[in-house]
Design brief:
binds ligand LLP; alpha/beta; 9-stranded mixed beta sheet; Lyase, Ornithine Decarboxylase, Chain A, domain 1; TIM Barrel; 26% strand; 21 strands
């Protein structure tokens, strides 16, 4: 079987550790399934990214849709990151850590009137509009609030990010942004409005992008547009490249931030404005695992199954994108490998974590680590089948902290009540 190569999740005497803490020690306390994150990973990744672009005026806005744990976002914020939020719910979380709203970007293809109001009332650094209608609505709401809305327009550069179709966003056929052919006219129209001020241009071409080419192509197209806009008297202060930088889940070899910087810096420097990035996955994915217990092992015909206590409600990526996550024992015992499906308890055939996976032979009662669960895992969890969301733990050297406990059954009922008149 293959093991994930990490400096943050390592084996010592056959026991999997996160930093200096044995995973066994954590799950003894909190049970499974449980999300476990390495603080050092987040710090090192952020530093690697910002270091790569140190020669240009830039800011990093962590896309909290990838991991919105309050402590994770506070960690990034303390490292001087801003945050990219995609809804009023994410804005609420971001404000909860006491961040300066001038370090917030408000994204989203379908912002509601209420979300626009909240963003403006809280004075976020900028709203990124994705349609003409939205620009007019922002202008109208800003007028009512007697404000001028700082605006970026998300332009769709029509570039193929060469990633999974569900997470590709920069093609003309995708729902995101406005068409690059129309962008100049729309900027000129927006500049005439009284209550919006175009301050930036934005792109985000997709997620889990492992090759530099799509970025080079898109950045060049957007830079051309930036200068056209400038030639029309509109001075933009920010050029936002979005996120999307890919990571290793299986055997992908993604580019390093330094390589991306080498490829696009010459273009970026010419712009002479602030460059923004919105990485999510790059900063978080490989910094977490989902620990799970093997409930049962069985064989149906020739097929081996490991039935574990984590499911599509805890990590949805395999079910919806066929995504690959390494799965490895938390205590290495066996040596022989088998081929097995690793499946959860939910009543769906689509509820699997891995299919036909070569994995060391293990027994019920043993624990497995589903690797690279620091991004798009907890945040995509659900209560389907009446399942409670698991706890989130952050490890800092030889200490671990429970940042969020497992939900209780009462949480699942929230304010649901029996209406007597119905009976
Ligand atoms: N900015 C915008 C406007 C975005 O829509 C996204 C992600 C990001 C930044 C951050 O992208 P990242 O650096 O994390 O690739 N659930 C999928 C990923 C969906 C990404 C959506 N947008 C997955 O599990 O692979």
């Amino acid at each position: 079987m293959k093991y994930f190569n990490s400096n943050y999740f390592t084996y010592r005497n056959n026991q999997l550790f996160c930093e200096e803490v044995p995973i066994q020690k954590i799950i003894k306390k909190v049970g499974t399934p449980a999300y476990i994150y390495s603080k050092k990973f987040f710090i090192d990744r952020y530093n690697e990214f910002t270091e790569a672009f140190k020669n240009v005026n830039h800011s990093i806005f962590f896309a909290i849709k990838s991991n919105f744990n309050l402590n994770v976002i506070k960690l990034f914020s303390n490292l001087s990151a801003g945050l990219d939020v995609n809804s009023a719910g994410e804005l609420h979380r971001a404000l909860k850590i006491g961040i300066n709203p001038q370090k917030l970007l408000f994204s989203g293809v379908g912002k509601t009137r209420r979300e626009i109001e909240e963003a403006l009332k809280n004075n976020v650094l900028m709203l990124k509009a994705e349609s003409e209608e939205e620009i007019y609505l922002i202008d109208q709401i800003a007028h009512q609030l007697a404000k001028v809305a700082p605006l970026a327009i998300r332009v769709n550069p029509n570039v193929d990010a060469q990633t999974h179709p569900y997470i590709s966003t920069g093609l003309a056929k995708n729902k995101f942004g406005i068409s690059s052919d129309e962008a100049l006219r729309i900027y000129k129209d927006a500049a005439k409005l009284k209550n919006v001020r175009p301050v930036g241009i934005d792109m985000h071409i997709g997620s889990q992008i492992t090759s530099i080419e799509p970025y080079k192509e898109a950045v060049q197209k957007m830079a051309d547009l930036f200068f056209e806009i400038k030639a029309n008297g509109i001075e933009l202060e920010h050029f936002d490249i979005g996120g999307g930088m890919g990571v290793t889940y299986n055997d992908e070899i993604p580019f390093k931030p330094k390589e991306l910087a080498e490829a696009i810096l010459p273009t970026l420097k010419k712009l002479n404005c602030e460059i923004m990035f919105e990485p999510g996955r790059f900063l978080s994915a490989n910094g977490g695992i989902l620990a799970t217990e093997i409930l049962y092992t069985k064989k149906n015909g020739d097929k081996n199954f490991l039935v574990v206590d984590a499911s599509m409600t805890d990590i949805l990526r395999p079910s919806i994108y066929g995504a690959y996550h390494h799965i490895q024992p938390i205590e290495k015992n066996g040596t022989d490998d088998i081929i097995a499906d690793v499946v959860g308890p939910v009543c769906e055939s689509g509820d699997f974590v891995a299919k036909d996976r070569e994995i060391v032979k293990c027994k019920s009662g043993e624990f497995l680590a589903i690797m690279s669960a620091g991004a798009y895992s907890m945040v995509m969890s659900s209560n389907y089948n009446g399942r409670r969301r698991g706890p989130e733990i952050i490890v800092d050297k030889d200490k671990f902290f429970i940042t969020r406990s497992r939900e209780t059954f009462e949480h699942l009922l929230y304010d649901e009540k029996i209406i007597n008149e119905l009976f």
